[in-house]
């Protein structure tokens, strides 16, 4: 049994802690923030779960399987429906008329014809520009899911499971330095351990371990807003392929999220400056959700968030010689985004036994 310190209480950190505990290791989770969850968290305001941009669950992906495994009650999910998604300048993603357009759509989905605008839109928005064919096909076949409880609900399920098995999660614990077998905290503590797992995101991991390879990241800006109106009507989303802007009404995807009104989640992902992305989001909402500004109940804006790592990702065990392992969606695995975070957690947990224990 190894003593394991997991730095970061987001999705990757909690999944890693659970996977390591299942294998018999003694685990402690540290996070510098006052709350757990990272970008997968949300804040409940008048029953509206205001989050950090849109998130969608891949049916039967690593995260979905993990949640089903640990849950006593199956999470309530409903899929994005292509016939309720509008493509700017193209009509609905899945046209139902005229008949010829419907026939061409079905053929394009069957053969995965990337020249078709609906396939291009799926490739762009199912994985935020990363071109995952798995997630693209999931969107086209109604297997990309919205959750009634929101993503913070998934985090809550993981946290409850960790509490039940006795894994402590300490928030407000800022790590200032890591070295082999020791973690240094801002409050002056020095914790000895056998294995350190950095599950705190690429930027923070790079600060703690500068020798991690430089990686290019995909940046985005987001606006999440609760309204007392329904400016999108019955549409679940409006997607602008040209400008990489997506506007989703989470209530239309899963009506159980809130009892009335709408919960809009908009994202613009590109290499444009963050100020320009925010201006584009505001203009898009003004055009596509007319009158939204006069119906705002709550809102949250993020000028810049890191959505994903582009290109080559470092291996989870690339610094294992230092007694340190890496976990997160930015770490190499066969999956991306949230599923990548969970997949890396399993890889890390399996690698703990290969690191010599402290003598």
What would you say this structure looks like, in words?
Among the domains are: 147 residues, 3-Layer(bba) Sandwich (FAD/NAD(P)-binding domain); 61 residues, no CATH class. It is 30% helix and 27% strand. The chain is built from ten helices and 20 strands. Strands 8-7-16-17-18-15-19 form a seven-stranded mixed β-sheet, with helices on both faces. A five-stranded parallel β-sheet has the order 10-2-1-14-20, with helices on one face. Strand 1, helix 1 and strand 2 form a beta-alpha-beta unit. The chain is globular. The model has no long low-confidence stretch (mean pLDDT 93).
- Name of the top-level CATH class of the domain at 3-42 and 152-215 and 312-354: Alpha Beta
Judged by helices, strands and strand pairing, the structural class is alpha/beta
User: End-to-end distance, in Å?
Assistant: 13 Å
Please, how many helices? 10
């Amino acid at each position: 049994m190894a003593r394991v310190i997991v730095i970061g209480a987001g999705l990757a950190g909690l999944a890693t802690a659970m996977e390591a505990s299942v294998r018999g290791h003694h685990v402690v989770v540290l996070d510098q923030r006052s709350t757990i969850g990272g970008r997968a968290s949300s804040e409940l305001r008048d029953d509206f779960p205001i989050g950090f941009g849109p998130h969608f669950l891949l049916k039967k992906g690593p995260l979905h399987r993990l949640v089903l495994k640990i849950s006593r009650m199956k999470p309530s999910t409903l899929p994005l429906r292509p016939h309720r998604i509008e493509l700017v300048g193209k009509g609905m993603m899945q046209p139902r008329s005229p008949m010829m357009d419907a026939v061409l759509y079905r053929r394009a989905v069957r053969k995965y014809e990337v020249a078709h605008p609906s396939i291009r839109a799926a490739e762009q928005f199912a994985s935020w520009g990363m071109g995952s064919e798995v997630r693209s096909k999931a969107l086209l076949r109604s297997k990309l899911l919205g959750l009634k409880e929101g993503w913070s609900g998934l985090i809550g399920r993981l946290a409850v499971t960790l509490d039940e098995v006795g894994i402590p999660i300490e928030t407000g614990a800022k790590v200032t330095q890591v070295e082999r077998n020791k973690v240094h905290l801002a409050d002056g503590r020095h914790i000895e351990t056998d294995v350190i797992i950095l599950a705190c995101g690429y930027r923070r991991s790079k600060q703690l371990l500068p020798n991690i390879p430089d990686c290019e990241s995909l940046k985005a800006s987001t606006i999440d807003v609760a309204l007392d109106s329904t400016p999108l009507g019955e549409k679940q989303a409006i997607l602008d392929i040209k400008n990489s802007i997506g506007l989703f009404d989470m209530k239309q995807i899963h009506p159980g999220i809130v009892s009335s009104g709408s919960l809009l989640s908009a994202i613009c992902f590109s290499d444009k400056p963050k100020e320009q992305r925010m201006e584009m989001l505001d203009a898009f909402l003004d055009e596509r959700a007319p009158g939204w500004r006069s119906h705002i109940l709550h809102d949250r804006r993020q000028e810049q968030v890191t959505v994903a790592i582009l290109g080559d990702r470092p291996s989870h065990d690339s610094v294992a010689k230092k007694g340190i392992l890496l976990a997160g969606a930015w770490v190499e695995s066969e999956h991306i985004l949230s599923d990548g975070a969970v997949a890396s957690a399993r890889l890390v947990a399996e690698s703990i036994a290969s690191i010599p224990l402290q003598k």
